[in-house]
Amino acid sequence: MENTNLLHYRDRRTHKPKQKSKLTNIPTDTRKVAFLYIRVSTDEQADRGFSQRDQDQRLHEYCERNNIRVGRVIYEDFSAKTFKRRPAWTQMLSELRKTNGRLCDMILFTKWDRFSRNTANAYNMIDILATLNIDPNAIDQYLDLKIPESRIMLAVYIAQAEADNLRRGLNVVVGMRRGRLEGRWMGKAPAGYINRVQDKTKYIEIHEPEASHMRWAFQTIAEGAFGTEAVWRLAKERGLKSTRNTFWANIRNPVYCGKIIVPADEHNELFLSDGKHTPIISEKLFWEVQDALNGRKKVQRFRLETPLTLPLRGFLTCPDCGRVLTGSASKGRPGRYYYYHCKAPCKARFKAHEVNEEFERDLHKFVPKPGMAELYKEVILDVTKGNGQNFEVERKKLITEISDQQNLITKIRAMLLSDEIDPQDFKIMKTQCEEKIVRLEASLKDLKENNEAKTDLSAIVDEALIRLKKLAELYKNGSIEQKRYIIGSIYPEKWTIFDNEGRTAKVNPAALLIYQINNKLWNKKAGVRTKIRTNSGLVPSAGIEPAQFPIGV
487 near 312, Cβ under 8 Å? Predict the structure, then answer.
């Protein structure tokens, strides 16, 4: 039975709690108390937990052989380089400091590399424990730290583990670089891909529906209809699971066009290797997105906060001062009235519902009349028959531009050797040329893929014509984003309001062709063409007009 006639007292030298018998006043348990510290390393984590059980067994057997009482067993599941990043150690040290080290006499572990692999951190922690009268030690590499010469062996043990750690780190860096050179993605797959393992070989493959969401995001950014922040929010509504910062990093990552970034080192510059995975987008689309993000591509963006009653806000210019009109609502007795208006001091102001109605009527002229849809289809198919010749012309043009950039690199390299330019200027010029070459090669690759792809153009045109016949209906029933997308796709430039009617100087060429087929080619004209003219003679559309046109739906 447990002896109840015991009292606790504190040793004045070590401040450790000891027990004395009330009857004999003699300490009953003079054994030292040890905390057992068990920690795994990066390589031992692959052993599925066998290392921890082995350390636990060996430490308990050591305490039994040496008559040491086990106070607590601390399991550390984090292989951290510093003590601050070890949760279990941090909690234990906090408790020891609160009790001034009275809970134990020593902290035992199997080897000194379990304690630390950094010499400076190890010595610093040993000094902290010394102020609490606690001795850390390794059962396989036991050292009496009270002997000054033992510090030499301690330095050897920890420095050896530190050197081994640094060597492993270098091996990992070299291995990851080799993997990137071979076109393999290293790490967790980005959005749109998923990690796979086959025959002990790791790779990434396309994962739906996230891949479709990322493809849509790239295409939308390249079109310029929405800002990047708006595209991210819309992609989340579509189902994309990505934080804002991650999304920004992803749209900058060439992995989506089949490239892997190989970072620069002391001997090589950063470059892109061909990935072994299947790309989600083309290289040409990726670089178009980068141009849009870097501001090289002029795009027309609008905010999502535009109310449904003001779809033309941001697309109109003031006839008096030329600034872009905004829109807002005014309160009246019956309700709210919406206006397109300029900013002070300009007083230009237009009723929103009148301008909106004029635009909806104006859309009818782009709806193919009965029989004109077939003619429009024939025109497109006839034009695309000469794509073979156009392909050769464009291909030769791109090859010539690539050759010019390569010759320019050769020229500036000769200038560097002759000391005509300094190394810093050479590096900048060479980087610019190489970036142009990458973009030109991406365009060339995209051109070849489009030429080789056997696309059923007839089916695509039929689908487009079905939607075109319902253009006015799609606009009327669409959301604010869909309305503004239709506006921007037909009219790339803004309107100027005159007498409550919109006028625009430029219309999308495809929309203008539809309008010409509807308007000018409706009746067959007599006469003989005697001269081939290089200019089309097309007159820009008047924009929003009150004229009515038949609808062939």
Answer: yes
Asked whether the whole model's pTM tops 0.70, one would answer no
Instruction: Return the beta strands (E) in 11-162 as ranges.
Output: 17-21, 33-39, 69-76, 106-109, 135-138
Is-cis flag, bond preceding 209, omega within 30? Answer: yes
For each of the chain's 553 residues, which pLDDT tens digit applies?
444 444 444 444 444 555 544 444 545 557 889 999 988 765 445 445 557 888 888 899 999 999 999 988 988 877 667 888 888 898 999 999 998 888 899 999 988 888 888 888 888 888 899 899 999 999 988 888 888 888 888 888 888 888 887 888 788 888 888 888 888 888 889 999 999 988 888 889 999 999 999 999 998 888 877 778 888 988 888 889 889 899 999 999 999 988 888 887 777 777 788 888 889 988 888 888 888 888 765 555 544 467 778 888 877 888 788 788 888 888 777 777 888 888 888 888 888 888 888 878 777 777 777 666 677 777 776 666 655 567 777 788 888 888 888 888 888 888 888 888 888 888 888 888 888 888 888 888 777 777 665 556 677 777 777 777 777 778 878 787 777 777 777 766 666 665 555 555 456 666 666 655 555 554 444 444 433 333 334 444 444 443 333 333 3
Q: Where do we find the tokens 């037909």?
A: 490
Cis peptide preceding 319, ω within 30 of 0: no
**DSSP character string of 515-536:** HHHHHTSSSPPPS------SS-
Q: Provide the residue count of the chain.
A: 553
8 A C-beta contact, residue 272 and residue 260: yes
- Rounded to whole angstroms, the Cα distance separating 150 from 110 reads 17
Beta-bridge partners for 316: 495
Rounded Cα–Cα distance for residues 234 and 240 (Å) = 9
Strands 349-351 and 336-341: what pairing?
Answer: antiparallel
